[in-house]
Specification:
Layout: H1 2-18, H2 23-37, H3 45-55, H4 60-66, H5 75-91, H6 106-152, H7 166-169, H8 179-183
Amino acid sequence: MFRRLWEKIKTLWKLAKSERASPRDIGWAVAIGAFAGCTPAMGVHGPLAIGLATLCKKNRLFAWLGSRISNMVFLPFIVYAEIQVSHRLRKGEWLVLERHDVIDQAGTLLIDWCIGTIPVGLAIGAVMGVIAWAFALRRDRRRAAREAAEAAAPPGGDGTAEPGSAASATPRDDVPAPPSARSA
C-alpha cells in the first residue's frame, strides 16, 4: 500500500517538475509566483501563485516556489518598500512612520501597500524570474553536456580499459610509480 502511494507521489513530482519546464517557462513561472508573493493577500500567496500560473499556462510548481519570497524574513522589507514607493508616487515624498500614528494611518497604509504591490512586485518578479531563467538554462546546458559526454564514451560504459590491453599498459601521470621504478 505504501509502495503504491510512494510511486504515485514520485510520478506526480516528476510531472510537476517537467510541466512546461523550459528555462523560459521556469523564469516566467517564478516571476509570476514572486509577484503573487508580494501582494497583500496574506496567507494565500501560494494558492494565488498557482492560480495565476494556471491562467498563464506556466509551471505551477515553480510559481509556488517563487511565491515563497513572502516569508517571515523578506516580507516586512517588501511591505515597507511597497508602502514607501506608493506613497512617494502618490504624494511626491517619502512616508515618515511614527509608531504612535500607525493605527491612525492604517487605511492609508493599506492603500499604499496595495498600490505599491504593482511596481515593487513587478521589479521583484523580474529579478527572480531572470535568476530562475539563468539557473534553468545552466541546468539544461549541463544536462546536454553530460548526455553528449555519455554518448561519446566508449561502449565499455565506465571508460576504463580492459586489463591487458594497450591502453591499460601505458603509464598514467596521476598514479605514482612503484618504488623500484623511481630509483632507476
